[in-house]
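Person: I keep going back and forth on a fold encoding question. Show me how you would write down a chain together with its backbone fold. Please set it down just below, with no commentary around it:
Helper:
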Amino acid sequence: MLYRVKQFFHALFPKISEDDLLWVNRILGPNEVELFKKLPVHEQQHSIAVGKDCMRANGSEELLKAALLHDIGKIESNLTILNKSLVVLLSPFEKHKKHMARFIRDAFYYKEYHPLIGANLLKNIYIEINQGESFSLTQSQERVIELIEAHHHGNDSRDNELQLLKKSDANN
């Protein structure tokens, strides 16, 4: 629980240094940076912390991109700091969410589905970059999408990068 309190206060007073932004720009391409910047500042801060954890573990370029972009499915969500806190507090009662206020149900939805939403959002950006649907995604792009989509629900214990992403996300 102490971890959640720390996480809450970090989100209330997010700080992103100029060095952090330069690092993000070195890892991500211009279209990816544009997506990253659409995240609320507290989500950007969280994603940078996840990315730096993965970097310290010598993560691949694809893992670092996935770490920075893993929460882009929250861009259009209602997951404010308060709503995220309520979801955490109400998680034991999630099976009764149909009786909760709409904004709480929506917050639970984005908590559950933001990996898939984010993966689809990034896939569409990559298709645009690759000149339309007739072009296939590169292996690197496919891997970034795969990591983002699985970062909450993927259970492949043999995928060390996915396990590192999940651990870094949980720790930040």
Observations:
- Residues 2-171 form a domain with the Hypothetical protein af1432 fold (CATH 1.10.3210).
- The chain has one domain: 2-171.
- The longest helix spans residues 102-129.
